[in-house]
Design brief:
This protein is an alpha+beta fold and 221 residues long. The chain contains five helices and ten strands. It has a three-stranded antiparallel sheet with strand order 2-10-4. It has a three-stranded antiparallel sheet with strand order 5-7-8. The longest helix is centred in the middle third of the chain and has 9 residues, at 82-90. The chain is globular. The two termini are 14 Å apart.
Length: 221
């Protein structure tokens, strides 16, 4: 574990982005499972295949580009950074799970995780409607398990032990970070998990919003 400071405030969604939200925003019509998490969209569809680049340009045809074009510029929709995601997931804890508990096993059911996450043993080999498990201390659901959640960051293997401010991942590369684990995971569903995925790989997501400059930063935990 290494220390991270977030100097800017942000909002993050209470729930994983759902299939119904995706289809409504992209004008794709109804879906029979609107409250299940969206889990089959590539990074290219979310934010563009070459992001983040020098000017962080986001194609207007992507999900994030569409949301930004329809909403006030005072609140900038985006994917969370890895640091923002983990800060939100942990909700002040430093344990493997956001309920203040650790994993008891990765080869058999973990009772400490059963109430908060859909994993290999609890899911029935499928993702589930969002919000059915217990939330973390900040009221965020499914931060662990159900579907992998995309972040903005390129993957770096050199996180370092020293404290960093507003980390944003590697400057180059084509592999990105996904967090939280998924319904079929045994060890992945935990706060510190870091998945490595190409820009064409499919994931779930959780929206974040960066408000105007001048809004107070999150309280340190």
């Amino acid at each position: 574990m290494h220390r991270v400071t977030l100097s800017h405030s942000f909002y993050i969604a209470v729930f994983e982005f759902t299939k119904g939200q995706w289809r409504r925003i992209k004008f794709a019509g109804p879906t029979p499972i609107p409250y299940n998490p969206a889990d089959s969209e590539s990074y290219e569809n979310l934010r563009g295949g070459t992001w983040p680049d020098e000017d962080d340009a986001i194609p207007p045809s992507t999900l994030i580009g569409t949301l930004r074009s329809r909403c006030s510029p005072a609140f900038e929709f985006d994917l969370p950074t890895e640091a923002q995601w983990e800060y939100a997931c942990r909700a002040g804890t430093q344990t493997a799970l956001h309920n203040g508990m650790d994993l008891t096993s990765v080869t058999e059911p973990c009772p400490n995780r059963a109430a908060i996450a859909w994993d290999f043993w609890t899911s029935g080999s499928a993702h589930h409607r969002v919000g059915e498990k217990l939330p973390n201390a900040w009221g965020l659901y499914d931060m662990i398990g159900n579907v992998y959640e995309a972040t903005r960051d390129r993957l770096t293997d050199h996180l370092g032990a020293a404290g960093v401010v507003d980390p944003a991942g590697a400057l180059t590369g084509t592999v990105y970070v996904a967090k939280g684990g998924a319904y079929n995971g045994k060890i992945d569903p935990r706060a510190a998990f870091r998945g490595a995925y190409s820009s064409s790989w499919v994931n779930g997501l959780r929206l974040a919003i960066r408000p105007l400059e001048g809004t107070p930063a999150p309280e340190p935990q």
